[in-house]
């Protein structure tokens, strides 16, 4: 979707997308095509590539809780 204005995340021109969650106008760099979300919403909802979601190397006895 082509819209006019500046990216609401970085402030540069060339806005190409609108986030389907928060309706921010964002540039290509700050938009995830797969989810239709801006990078801010994507980080809030826990999105990202499968590679980013791989368990981190942690010592034994350390648990990670996600809510």
Q: Explain this structure to me?
A:
The chain has 67 residues and is largely without helices or strands. The chain is 10% helix and 12% strand. It is built from 1 helix and 4 strands.
Number of domains as seen in the coordinates: 1
Number of beta strands = 4
**Class by SSE composition:** little secondary structure
Q: Over the alpha carbons, how many angstroms does the gyration radius reach?
A: 15 Å
Q: What's the short story on this structure?
A:
The chain has 67 residues and is largely without helices or strands. It has one helix at residues 39-45; strands at 17-18, 25-26, 31-32, 37-38. The termini are far apart.
Key traits:
1 helix, two-stranded antiparallel sheet, little secondary structure, 67 residues
Topology record:
Blueprint: E1 17-18, E2 25-26, E3 31-32, E4 37-38, H1 39-45
Antiparallel strand pairs: 1-2, 3-4
């Amino acid at each position: 979707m082509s819209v006019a204005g500046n990216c609401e995340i970085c402030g540069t021109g060339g806005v190409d997308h609108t986030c389907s969650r928060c309706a921010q106008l964002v540039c290509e760099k700050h938009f995830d095509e797969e989810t239709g979300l801006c990078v801010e919403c994507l980080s809030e909802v826990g999105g990202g590539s499968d590679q980013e979601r791989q368990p981190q190397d942690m010592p034994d006895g350390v648990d990670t809780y996600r809510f």
